[in-house]
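Reply to dn_fold:

You asked what the input looked like. This is it:
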Amino acid sequence: MPTGQIPPIYTLRNTRIILDSDLARVYGVPTKALNQAVKRNPARFPSDICFHLTPEEFRQMWSQFVTTFAEETVSQSLKYRRADQLPLAFTERGALMAANVLNSERAVQMSLFIIRAFIRMREELAANAAILKRLAEIDRTLLEHDSALRALWNYLQPLLQPPPEPPKRRIGFIS
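and this is what came back:
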């Protein structure tokens, strides 16, 4: 797969997946090597992060490709696969785990990239948490000031009223 080209991502079983041969091309290894790494490390690839397509899923995906996509966009995983070989489907977590068990230069680079990305994300979340804490303090202070200003306004309101007009003197004899 040329650098910068994004492999096809599919949705299957309400999960985004990438097929084994597409992932192998991303990491620069043969599909066979990727599948062997998965077989050698079954504890790292439980069924929620890596699974074989069922024959029905395989048929559905193939029919979607034939009717929807041009020939050059059909996944290599489906294009040259024997009928008895069902591809592995990797979820996002499975694709990350594959980077950890493969020993290609691109897989190692991807593992390091992922680690750095998670560290940066954690640092940004910590910075955001500090900002949110400070905003909560400011909000609480503003609410306190708001109630103090409201009380002050209530006290000053009578003083701001114009003085009452003095009573008019009545004309005439007052007994």
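The longest helix spans residues 105-160.
Hope that clears it up.
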